[in-house]
Amino acid sequence: MVIGIVAGVLLAAVIIVVALFKLMWRVAEPNEALIISGSKHRTDGLEEGMGFRIVTGRGTLVLPGVQAVRKLSLDLNEADLNVDCVTKQGIPLKVHGVVIFKVGDDFVSIANAARRFLDQQKFMGDRVHNVFAGHLRSIVGGLTVEDMIRDRERLTGETRAASGTEMEKLGLIIDSLQIHEIQDPTGYIKNLAAPHAAAVQRDARIAEAEADRLATEAEQQAKARMSQAQRDSEILQAGYQAERDSAAAKARQAGPLAQAAAQQEVVVQETRVAELAARRREQQLQADVRKPADAAAYEKRTLAEAERDARISAAQAKARETELAAAAEATRVKTAAAAEAEATTARGTAAATATRATGEAEAEAARAKGLAAAEASRAQGLAEAEAIKARASALAENQEAVVAQQLAEQWPEIVRAGAQAFGSVDHMVLLNGADGVSDLFAKALTMGGTGLGLARQLLAAMGTADGPGAGTRAGTGPVAGAGGIGAGTGDAGGRDGGGRAGSGGHGRGDGPPAGGPAAGPPRAAPRVERVPVEEDGGIPGAGAR
Amino acid sequence: MVGRLGRVTGTVGPGLVGEVMVRVRGGAEAFLAYASEPGERFERGAVVVVVEHLPPRTVYVAAAYG
């Protein structure tokens, strides 16, 4: 029972103690300060006799009823500001800003704030707004618009300079001043921006134009390149087409060309065949015609030559024989003549004197006779001339008779002239009689073709002796002379004529046999050559034939 | 507070109210800062030493390594 009472009392006492402690113990939270008044305290940093103590961040024992405990919030506060201000340049602005502040954390600031705002903590913003509106005016008045907009350092500096000490009095700290919005009725800010905006717009337009130009250039270049490429392509195509056409044309012509070439080859070969045939023909002709003809000609020629040589040898042998015989005769005659001459000289000298005397006498007689004869001859000649003239006129139409008559009349003269050749030989001894004379005559006439010359001489001598009418007699002379001599020297002339005729025969015989076959083939060859070129191979044979 | 190092977050100079961040009370707080020597200038980011603290939130600073 007692224990129960004791326990109950103890429990009650404990409960009471706890409740009392609970009542007396107060704790300051981190964002608040406890302002305890009603007892004598000392607080760090505060002068004696302040009458209250400040507790932050810990618990403290408070005597209820004796001491009063108030809380001061140390939280952040803010105040909106809407202020009409004028800047340093006198430009009116409507500034909308926010100021963020709090109670200072040191005991002095807390004490200052506690004294001013302890019961008016709800209205702290309004108070600060009112205070700060004036400050903001002064702040803005110390700045230009450009500073306000751009220079935050200047703004905060001005804020501190203007309101720092003021806020110290209130125990507040300005954490930040933010200007949300500046309304600009005069359009200063817009105008401020205008040059930049214009410049920016200009730059933008320039850049756009430049870009446009570049793009257009690029496009045009691309188009030009395209056109160029198209042109190149078309040129190339045209070139290839031309090559194709050329190749096709060439191919088309190749057939006829090859045919023509083949035909040409055929013609060439045919021509060659024809040439060969012609050559064979020619060779055959040579073998068949010319060679035999040549052989025959050669045979004939050789025979003729042999004959001629035989005759010549015979003639030469005869001539030699005759010559030798003549030489033998001559030596014999010469020795005989020399012997005779000795005798004759002796006789001659004796006879000469006699003869001279008789000669002189005879000369006198002869001169007288001659003069008389000359007279007679002249008279006779004149008479004969008259007679001849009369005869010529009478026998002009009958020349043959005249010639015959004249010849008949002149025969003695001719014979005399012929004998005149031996006239120079004043003494001639013929040892073999009539044969010797004829032989001598023949020799004289045949010496180096002098026969005819001698006859001419004879006739000339006669001509000079005859005087007029020599022209007709000279023309007829040789005929008669030849006839006369021909009769006298028939043997020698016949032989000589035969020899000449033989050699002439040879000469003439040489020509035709050689010329005939020789001229034959050359004349036939061009005909053979020409024909095959114009006509087919079959025809040249016919042409050659 | 005095003798602590701080970092300049707002230029300290003549005619200006600077700002210095100083580590204090387990955190870092911003203080209004003035140069201890007149005419001195500390750009943002410079390290300074607090030579004087005037409560509640004003400090005078000097060059930390000078």
TrEMBL record, chain A:
Q: Which InterPro entries does the record cross-reference, listed alphabetically? A: Band_7, Band_7/SPFH_dom_sf, Flotillin_C, Flotillin_fam
GO function terms (MF aspect): protease binding
Query: Which stretches does UniProt call biased (Low complexity)?
Result: 339-360
Compartments in which it is found: Membrane
| Composition-biased stretches (Gly residues) | 470-492, 499-513
Domain Flotillin C-terminal per the UniProt entry, residue ranges = 360-462
- Gene3D superfamilies from the xrefs? Band 7 domain
Q: Which UniProt keywords apply?
A: Coiled coil, Membrane, Transmembrane, Transmembrane helix
GO cellular component terms, A-Z: plasma membrane
Matching entries from Pfam families are given as:
Band_7, Flot
Q: Which residues form the Band domain?
A: 27-212
Q: Which GO terms describe its biological process?
A: protein localization to plasma membrane
The record's section on CDD domains has: SPFH_flotillin (cd03399)
What is the name of this protein?
Flotillin
Automatic annotation (TrEMBL), chain B:
The protein here is known as Uncharacterized protein
What species is given as this protein's source? Streptomyces cinnamoneus (Streptoverticillium cinnamoneum)
Q: Which domain of life is it from?
A: Bacteria
